[in-house]
Write a structure and sequence with these properties.
The chain is an alpha/beta fold. The chain has eight helices and eleven strands. Keywords: Activator, Cytoplasm, DNA-binding, Phosphoprotein, Transcription, Transcription regulation, Two-component regulatory system.
């Protein structure tokens, strides 16, 4: 299902036809091209398309595969944003979803305006990517630390070998907040505010999960972190020498 949309392509993976059609209608009214998928298999075909979706709204209970397994499979090879939409509302389910790599989590029943707002927020944080490249002569904002390069405008992180590090939208936002506040201890609430993730469904454990995910990707020894340190009872601090990118 598509429309004359300008907001981007969003896959709606939901086996309940009424819920699926409702979400599709909400997205289309909001200017998005909504792609309905009734199963994990249908999503797999869509992901192999020449023009795959830019965001996935994913139900956890699918007829052919568990939604968490689907999210984990997608995240192993892609940084496409994922919003989980499910009837499971426990903190355990949310934490597991975040650990796998989801960018946001909504519980049914949901407010249509809130769903649309979250889709827009996740895509906005993801950035325009290759659709609107920054001219080469434009100065880029960003930082270098321990050989890594964090490009804020391009929303990219490269490791000391120049290899891109795949980060989800939330992981990038958290790393940027930590690096920009280097040397200063930030509480979980402060980090949520800096990430613009403050809402009723976000909880402190969100930050803890994202910190673990970041450490696995950029720390030499995630169990003994060198530069994303925990200050017990206070929060987290980025403890490394940081230099601006050329021209920033």
């Amino acid at each position: 299902m598509t429309s004359s949309a300008t907001g981007g392509r969003v896959a709606v993976v939901e086996d309940d036809r009424i819920v699926r059609d409702t979400v599709v209608d909400i997205l289309q009214e909001g200017g998005f091209s909504a792609l309905a998928c009734e199963s994990a298999g249908a999503l797999a075909k869509l992901m192999g398309d020449v023009n795959p979706p830019e965001l996935i709204i994913l139900d956890l209970q699918l007829p052919d595969r568990d939604g968490l397994a689907v999210a984990g499979s997608i995240r192993s090879s892609s940084d496409i944003p994922i919003i989980m939409l499910t009837g499971r509302g426990s903190d355990v389910d949310r934490i597991v979803g975040l650990e796998i790599g989801a960018d946001d989590y909504m519980v049914k029943p949901f407010n249509p305006r809130e769903l649309l707002a979250r889709v827009k927020a996740v895509l906005r944080r993801k950035g325009p990517g290759q659709l609107s490249p920054v001219p080469a002569e434009t100065q880029r904002r960003g930082y270098r630390f321990l050989g890594f390069s964090l490009d804020l405008d391009g929303r990219k992180l490269t490791d000391p070998s120049g290899v891109p590090v795949s980060l989800t939208v939330s992981e990038f936002d958290l790393l940027a907040a930590l690096v920009e506040a280097r040397g200063r201890v930030l509480s979980r609430n402060q980090l949520l505010d800096l990430m613009r993730r403050r809402n009723d469904d976000v909880f402190d454990r969100t930050i803890d999960v994202l910190i673990l995910r970041l450490r696995r990707k950029i720390e030499p020894s995630p169990r003994n972190p060198r530069f994303i340190r925990t200050e017990r009872g206070l929060g987290y601090v980025f403890d490394a020498q940081v230099e601006p990118l050329d021209g920033s």
